[in-house]
Amino acid sequence: MHNGADRMVPRPDHVPPAVVMDFDVHNPPGAATDLHAAWRKLQDGPDIVWAPYHGGYWVPTRHEDIVFMQLNVDPFSMRDVTMPANTRPTRLLPLEADPPERAGFRAILNPWFSPKRINALDFYTRQLAVDLIGGFKPRGECEFMSEFALILPIAIFMHLTNLPESDREILLRYTQMTTRGTASERAEAYEWMTGYLNPVIIARRADAGDDLLSTVIHAKPGGVPLGENDLMSMLLTILFGGLDTVASAMGFIADFLSAHPDHRQFVIDNPDRTYHAVDELMRRFSPSNTARTLTRDYEYKGIVFKKDDKVYVPPVMAGMDERRYEHAWEIDFTRKDVVHASFGNGPHRCLGSLPARLEIKIFLEEWLKCIPDFRVKGGEAPVYGPGQVNCVERLVLSWNI
Asked: With contact defined as beta carbons under 8 Å apart, do 371 and 401 qualify?
């Protein structure tokens, strides 16, 4: 959705000329043909670069620095995770609340993301995966994103929130506008989402259910109900966080596996190693990126950050860092160290990591059981979409029937 035409800004005095890179994170050069290779080119330059788009921002390109910035919310605050800065009508909670404020909001959500609660979704998720695959397997092909990746995790999300399945497509469309849209598209998406949620809030205040949204709507942290702004902010975060990222990861994984039969066979032959394979794939194909804002002037490894500087933190770069992982560009399901930064680090680690891992595990198990040999259909090159959540927009797969 970004056209790359954002006005370039002058280099500030505190930015050394040697670290300036002509690189728009919302439209990396070469992303249309190989999105990850486009990002990888940044590692040919300085460890931390500065780009003149979207008001200007820093980008760490190495694992050590990405993890450091994810761990240290002071000075690398999460108070505004999008770029350009200040382009939303409200903040997203608990995502954009730093400690100690974050703890109260996070505590409301934690019970819904416990191992017991998430593991209880296994049967529902697995049956849905089997049904979806069974629907298109006899055709010998499918458009993977629209027929599987954008249904399975989102159906689980709709199940948790007790929202009607018929709303899935329109909710997804506006969510994608917030992660890959222009500033005006993001504003439109927030306005629409707020209008969508208002009647949901009214209905569930009157008749609460056993669902994630009802829990937030009736929450009383410290004995006090959430204010209207904080309540809407939390509900918006739930919608935006649950509707896009896992589908995007699945797209990159399916794209990779379509060209690597040995990796497919490893998963089939080693069912006890599937979660290990999931983490190796997430290390390499992390879809989500977030911006940070400097809370104060700060010097780090010779770089002088100024208060209010923006830093764009891409975990995908951490996963492809040869300094951290031997042969980092390669997917190796026998790799011993698959600890990665793709779900964040420290107080802002993603609440959705457990359902994401479960959904991807079930995808691998059930897909490879039903369709062990598949490929990208001839003449149908994958279409990639860069943005705050990198994605595969279109992926046509085929197999013999």
From this structure: no
Give the DSSP letter of residue 336. S
Q: What superfamily would CATH give domain 17-398?
A: Cytochrome P450 (1.10.630.10)
Q: Tokens standing for 306?
A: 């100024």
Q: Which two tokens stand for residue 331?
A: 């997917």
- Residues 167-208 have pLDDT tens digits of 988 988 888 787 777 778 888 988 999 999 999 999 999 999
> Which residues are catalytic, by number?
180, 244-245, 350-352
**Which pTM does this prediction carry?**
0.92
Residue ranges per domain, the chain? 17-398
d(CA 343, CA 386): 18
Q: 3-state DSSP: the chain helix, strand, coil percent, rounded to 5?
A: 50, 10, 40
Closest CA to 1 of 184, 180, 176: 180
Residues sharing a CB contact under 8 Å with residue 388, sequence separation 6 or more, in sequence order: 26, 81, 82, 83, 178, 179, 180, 288, 289, 290
